[in-house]
Amino acid sequence: MTTAPTLNSVPRVKKEDTIVSWSDSEPLRVTSCISTSAACLLPAIAITALSQLYSLRQMLGCFAGFTIVFALGLIVLTQGTSSRAEIFAVAAALSVVMVVFISVPPPAKFITFVPPGSPTPSVTAIISG
């Protein structure tokens, strides 16, 4: 500790700053940015994962897993400031997107074998069989 002399020659203790305060705005802004990015990317990641699956059981398992991860991520990343109704509404919206994706069947793939030297078959020949 340092002392500063006074007029009456009684030493006084110099005040030092001992408490540091931080603003909550910067961590809150970073957390908000991360949670918003995760919320925007998760539907795209879910659809990409679902597009690689062909079994209905695998699709439904992936569907449930992504919905749970999404809801838990929102709860954790928003630090509990979101209400249950808001989290349910957002999870339901994600579910609707995934259900629409699951309900649309994948496009049929036509594989035709054309021997070398043969003319390329027309589209009507492929469809008629």
TrEMBL record:
Listed InterPro entries: DUF6594 (IPR046529)
TM annotation in the entry: 62-81, 87-104
A UniProt-annotated Pfam family: DUF6594
Keyword flag Cell wall biogenesis/degradation: no
Name the UniProt record assigns to this protein: DUF6594 domain-containing protein
Protein keywords: Membrane, Transmembrane, Transmembrane helix
Domain DUF6594: 14-99
Domain of life the protein comes from: Eukaryota
Keyword Electron transport assigned: no
